[in-house]
Design goal:
Distance between the termini: 48 Å
GO biological process, one term: sporulation resulting in formation of a cellular spore
Strand order of the largest sheet: 2-4-5-7-6
Largest sheet: 5 strands, mixed
Radius of gyration: 20 Å
Bound molecules: adenosine-5'-diphosphate, magnesium ion
Organism: Aquibacillus koreensis
Number of strands: 7
Catalytic activity: ATP + protein L-histidine = ADP + protein N-phospho-L-histidine
GO molecular function: ATP binding; phosphorelay sensor kinase activity
Keywords: ATP-binding, Kinase, Nucleotide-binding, Phosphoprotein, Sporulation, Transferase, Two-component regulatory system
Length: 224
């Protein structure tokens, strides 16, 4: 992995992706092959092996669906959408899942805004960022989702109480396949940046004073 990271700095995004995909898919495939050989040899502990094999197949499945999402041309289905609807949909979707980890998600919308955007894509970004927050908060706590705006921009902050992001990995976050998680794909942030840039916006990362980090989505407000 170290070698890949060094090489990746000299490669195009497409090149990084291709190298990453090959690598990420070969590992579970190698493992699958090994287990099939064990089963062919008539080994016991079959159930245990089947379980691992299904996990490996699921891993490939997750990677390929995220890649399909990236490779889809960004069809512009942009319309004026109510900010509050998108936020409420996503928060409602994730709240019950977060509860299982003792995490509350608070939503605070200062002012209703119409955002010219592809609703599905923006919801995907919100899901990616809130999920990342949930995944870092091993001890539970509160995630605050706050939407503010001025005349030209809308600011959506996802404020978590996780461990924060070590300085030395900050520049790697948007690289494809960069992950610090055992089951991570490292594609969520890359996809999120791509979507937000497709909306002429940006994502800012801040470390919180007390604990955790804030991911802020900035989107331009186009007036109707
Ligand atoms: P994945 O979630 O599959 O690891 P992402 O692209 O979503 O991939 O995130 C890449 C990495 O960025 C994570 O593995 C984690 O190290 C870091 N990260 C993302 N969000 C946060 C957060 N809210 N707090 C701390 N680290 C984060
Ligand atoms: Mg993620």
């Amino acid at each position: 992995a170290e070698e890949m990271l060094i090489r990746s700095e000299k490669m195009s995004v497409a090149g990084q992706l291709a190298a990453g995909v090959a690598h990420e898919i070969r590992n579970p495939l190698t493992s699958l092959k090994g287990f099939i050989q064990l089963l062919q040899a008539g080994i016991d502990k079959k159930d245990e092996y089947y379980k691992i094999m299904i996990d490996e197949i699921n891993k490939i499945d997750t990677i390929t669906s995220e890649l399909l999402f990236i490779s889809k041309p960004m069809t512009d289905e942009k319309k004026f959408e109510k900010l509050s609807f998108m936020l409420k949909d996503v928060v409602t979707l994730l709240r019950s899942q977060a509860k299982l980890y003792n995490i509350e998600i608070n939503l605070q919308i200062e002012k209703e805004r119409m955002i010219f955007c592809d609703r599905t894509q923006i919801k995907q970004v919100l899901i990616n960022l809130i999920k990342n927050a949930v995944e870092e908060m091993k001890e539970g706590g509160t995630i605050n989702v706050v939407a503010q705006s001025n005349e030209t921009n809308c600011f959506i902050s996802i404020i978590d109480e996780g461990p924060g992001i070590p300085e030395h990995i900050l520049h790697k976050l948007r690289e494809p396949f960069f992950t610090t998680k055992k089951d991570g794909t490292g594609l969520g942030l890359m996809i999120s940046y791509k979507i937000i840039e497709n909306h002429q916006g940006s994502i800012e990362i801040q470390q919180n004073k007390g604990k955790g980090s804030t991911f802020q989505i900035i989107l331009p407000i186009n007036h109707e």
